[in-house]
Amino acid sequence: MEFQPQQRSADGRITYPPGVKEITDKISNDEVVKRLKMVVKTFMDMDQDSEDEKQQYLALALHLASEFFLRNPNKDVRLLVACCLADIFRIYAPEAPYTSHDKLKDIFLFITRQLKGLEDTKSPQFNRYFYLLENLAWVKSYNICFELEDCNEIFIQLFKTLFSVINTSHNQKVHMHMLDLMSSIITEGDGVTQELLDTILINLIPAHKNLNKQAYDLAKILLKRTVQTIETCIANFFNQVLVLSKSSVSDLSEHVFDLIQELFAIDPHLLVSVMPQLEFKLKSNDGEERLAVVRLLAKLFGAKDSELASHNRPLWQCFLGRFNDIHVPVRLECVKFASHCLMNHPDLAKDLTDFLKVRSHDPEEAIRHDVIVTIINAGKKDLILVNDQLLGFVRERTLDKRWRVRKEAMMGLAQLYKKYCLHHEAGKESALKISWIKDKLLHIYYQNSIDDKLLVEKIFAQFMVPHNLETEEKMKCLYYLYACLDPNAVKALNEMWKCQNMLRSHVRELLDLHKQPTTEANTAAMFGKLITISKNLPDPGKAQDFLKKFNQVLGEDEKLRSQLELLISPTCSCKQAEICVREISRKLTFPKQPTNPFLEMVKFLLERIAPVHIDSEAISALVKLLNRSIEGTADDDDEGVTPDTAIRSGLELLKVLSFTHPTSFHSSETYESLLQCLKLEDDKVAEAAIQIFRNTGQKIEAELPNIRSTLIPILHHKAKRGTPHQAKHAVHCIHAIFHNKEVQLAQIFEPLSRGLNGNVPEQLITPLVSLGHIAMLAPDQFASPMKSIVANFIVKDLLMNDRSTGNKNGKLWASDEEVSPEVLAKVQAVKLLVRWLLGMKNNQSKSANSTLRLLSAMLVSEGDLTEQKKISKSDMSRLRLAAGGAILKLAQEPCYHDIITPEQFHLCALVINDECYQVRQIFAQKLHMALVKLLLPLEYLAVFSLCAKDPVKERRAHARQCLLKNITVRREYVKQNPMAHEKLLSLLPEYVLPYMIHLLAHDPDFAKPQDCDQLRDIKECLWFMLEVLMTKNENNSHAFLRKMVENIKQTKDAQAPDDPKVNEKLYTVCDVALLVIANKSTACHLESPKDPLLPSKFFTAPDKDFVNDKEYVSSEARTALLTGKPKPSPVLVTVNKPLSVTGRRPYTKSTAADGGAGGIGGGLEPSSPAGNKGRDGNAEGLETGASENNENPGIILSDSSGKDANLEGSQGGKIGSTPTASPTPPAVPSKPRRGRPPKSLSGGTGTPPSAEKEGGATGRGRKRAAPAQDGTATVEPITIKIPKQQKDTESKRTAPQRQMDLQSHCHLLGSEGDTEMESSSGSSRESSSGRRGPAFCSQVRRMCRPTRRKWRIAPPRCGTLSGGPWSRTAAAGSCISPLMCFWPPDGTTQHRHTLKTACEAPADKARFLHHERPEERVRGEPSGKSSG
């Protein structure tokens, strides 16, 4: 129905409702309001079906839209008019009575302005405003505006008005009507313009959102309701901004990422078309733009309940790619996102793991740090959220190069451990998942950084065993923690207590210095102590300054000193320690400062020295826990350990604490419990209990007689019948805690010495251990009987007899259980000899000389002293290791070090290149431990240079670490001890160079001074040491090294000063050393700060008339060394391939067709290519070093022929191989075997003279030549015969030869041929493979007396000789050797020959050897006459 505009009644007047007078501008506002209210009432009551009334009041409706009403200044008038207009639109719907578009626009703008009245809900007119809103929303009156061209202006104004008036006082109905009104405009219109969309979206921007939360909620609900319609408009907007970069389309363009985040949170469907556009932005060239997109997507993907990653996999994968972005902030943002993602979306952890792994190794410290934070935060929320790989990344970062990252990783793991393992917040399964944390954290204590050590101590005290727990709970935590730790973690924890105890002793010594009068010496000592203490604190430089200040305060404040003394006293309890720390800190906090670094440093010191865990009460609690474990009433199984493990680890824990807190153990209850432990069957438990008594029982005899009476018989029994370790500690315990120790030890010594029986080796081991330690602890009391035992039983009956036959499986090493009791007894016998000598600490009886000869012979014979081939390879390895370790032990005593000859030193050094991996490993550890404690002379540091030839990477790395540690320790010692400057020759690491040069010059592998391969090996060994020495050029040390080498070239080798070949090798090594130094340093040619000194034991004094300016390394060799020409593969190419320094050759036979044997220095390959090929197949195992000696097919003896095969060929040739034109690189010849000289001579035909001149190698190939002896010590002779085939050759030796003694300077024979062992019947004695190495032949020649025709062995005669083995001459018809002869206490010499092949021979052919005192020998003079 259409209405004519301005239609009036028949009389032309406007019809008003009954009772309403005409409304004009002539009446007052109050009257207008009054009349309008009646009009409003009338329109409110009308409905759309009242056609007559609609026609009647049409003129009035038009009149109400006049300017008088629309622009009336009175708001009440405007409100009533707006209500009327709203009802008019309702009544006349769907057609409005106003046809003019301009009028409609004015009306709706007028109505919109009145809606602002909704803002004040307390206004008297609010109900009318609400009625207006409700009417407009219900009728959808604004939909009329769709027909207007500029309707957008009306809608924008409406939306702005509604968003601006909404507030917290509005009820749900107001919200609903506003939403209805706006949603109808959006859903029923043709589209949403950008301006109108901005009106909605602006409420989502964070700034507006914070100002009007209700407007944000209204917009949020509106978008949700209209998602289907408005999504297209939103997509268009973001397309314009993101893809087309048209930022001018909207004022909100700069907030586009904030809007995307909010829209995604409202409804992800709003951004269905927008997400692909973000993938485009992720690949932008602008780093800042990528960063903004990454920040946005991080929030979208990480939002809780977000399914964006699963619904949009391409975008997710593209986002993950930003973890590898070149822009650091982008990578950092990605890592931060991962934390929320792991916590909110555990299913995405698998996708994130690989990328977090890469970022955990990011070059940026902040990124690595945030990776740790990300994983730890997720783990602290729920351990299920982080997988083992993620925790593994944190584990790796505990070794990060940056302290901040390491600290975060360590603290994070500690927090996880405390939450899930200590408090069991997620059950046993979660605790088991991270059970490795405790071990890993303690392993960090091995790091060199003091910061790491301090943090581990802090973590232990706060997270692993919280110090604030009650004593019983705290000790229970410690008890079971110790039981669950792995061996390395246990060592670290023990080291931590040891370091804390050592620091306490330093502080105690500092306080003692304060009690002494102030003198210059006292002040210097105090300063040195402060330096030592500062090195145990973070930032030692600053710590030193703060400690000086603290020391000054200590000197001035006696009360502070007394508090500190109480803190470090052995009787201080944990509670007292807390009080002391608090009191000392309180005194140092005045005057108060915001930050007090001085106080922080002092707190660090106090925390390290305070006994926060262990006191007498704590020890009692531990003992009670141990008793409950023994009784079976403890919660061992619930804590994840077996009762046996708990008992054993509990005793070990008490044993460690007995070292650091011995006073806390002194109670009858504690010792009663320990006595019960001694009665248990577990050997380890009893051993630990004995050690605890030894460490803590000094007052037992005086104060606890009942404990003493029970303990003595137990200790006696353990010393006689216990395990070796129990016996050792029982003897030491008796010596430490009893006053009548001599009587007690005698009661053990006598029955043990009488019961020694070599036929029952199983029962020998414990007695030998006890006797050895008794001899060491009480040498004066037991010197005479021990000498008899050593002479009559240890050497003659035990070491020189092989009663059983070993396993011939060819293995180089066997477990302790597989070692025969006889060999174990021999090992203990060697240790007994050493302990006996260490107890005497003098060489008046020359026992040490004989012992050293015995040990050297053991090394020369490869561990098989009797050479009967009865013992197995693995047993020989054990004996070699025992001999090498024994020499190291003796070298630690100055009186014995002086008598160790260079030859014996070289033999000992070569053990580090033994063919058995375990021998090399254990020997290197023993060497390192003695060196790092400054127990061994400096020359033994040179032994590590031979490790350059070790084929196992781990062994080389270990050796280098040992070098670094030792060199650092020695330099620090020199710096800290002013008195050490007087002993620089024995302390300064640079002085190791002469010893190393001498050692390498006598390397048996270095036989040809001009051989490039051998020179390259020498260079590698030199650089292995020099690389560490030359790390820094402190005090012009490079020039000092150069000067030292140049000085060596002006001397001669003290071992053979007149031997040109020996000196040539020495000078060649010097030239290589100079080449290495000059090549690695540009400062070496400067002036040396001082003239170096050279050890006279190894080098002669420089001769003023001797000038050595010759270059011994050819130019070609220099070029090869400098250019790094490819050298042969490592010395041991396979697991058990013999070392080129001290290992031994595989024992294989070769035929004459295999090729010739080269000379001593030829470096020939002893086995066929087939044999090498078989070994090369295992080369992969080289770098691991895990199971090097499990099987060794290369050393299994083969006996394919009953006769000996000859080896022929030119020196330097490769046996059994010929050059080919194949492009494949030729197989590298295996290096000659390193180690001791061979034990037997080769049988069969001799090598040609040409080969003999070079030291012709036969059979097993070249081994290390026997050491040339000088006059400083004696070496025992070995009786041998020259093979019959060489009689003619020997007869040609017509030139007179002086008699050669084992202690004299020996010369190698010429080319007369090889020798062989010959019995009286003339049959040859063969080794297992029937061959003997030529180097051994040379050794035998040097050890035997030369005759005109051939070398003979003198058969032994029965009977006792008159005179000792040191007499100048020996009786005819006897063979005396330190290998076989020791002296009984009565002064007579008995001998026992155990070489079965040496037997009776015709008297006219016998030749005898004898010994003489080295100091009585006259050079060049025969030492005695022989009788036929």
Structural summary, described in words:
The protein has 1428 residues and is mostly helical. Helices cover 54% and strands 1% of the residues. The protein is built from 60 helices and four strands. It has a two-stranded antiparallel sheet. A two-stranded antiparallel sheet has the order 3-4. The longest helix is centred in the middle third of the chain and has 29 residues, at 487-515. The N and C termini lie far apart (159 Å).
Topology:
Blueprint: H1 29-45, H2 51-56, H3 58-64, H4 67-70, H5 75-91, H6 101-114, H7 126-139, H8 151-165, H9 172-188, H10 194-201, H11 206-211, H12 213-225, H13 227-243, H14 256-266, H15 275-282, H16 287-302, H17 308-311, H18 313-321, H19 328-344, H20 349-359, H21 365-381, H22 388-397, H23 403-422, H24 427-433, H25 436-443, H26 450-464, H27 471-484, H28 487-515, H29 520-534, H30 540-556, H31 558-568, H32 574-588, H33 597-609, H34 616-631, H35 643-660, H36 668-678, H37 683-696, H38 700-703, H39 705-721, H40 724-737, H41 741-754, H42 765-777, H43 779-799, H44 821-840, H45 847-860, H46 873-891, H47 894-897, H48 902-909, H49 917-932, H50 953-976, H51 984-987, H52 992-1001, H53 1012-1029, H54 1037-1049, H55 1060-1080, H56 1115-1123, H57 1169-1176, H58 1249-1253, H59 1287-1291, E1 1317-1318, E2 1324-1325, H60 1334-1343, E3 1381-1382, E4 1390-1391
Antiparallel strand pairs: 1-2, 3-4
Helix pairs in contact: 1-5, 5-6, 5-7, 6-8, 7-9, 8-10, 8-12, 9-12, 13-15, 14-16, 15-18, 16-19, 19-20, 19-21, 21-22, 21-23, 23-24, 23-26, 25-28, 27-34, 27-35, 28-29, 28-35, 29-30, 30-33, 31-32, 34-35, 34-36, 35-37, 36-37, 36-39, 37-40, 39-40, 40-41, 40-42, 41-42, 42-43, 42-44, 43-44, 44-45, ...
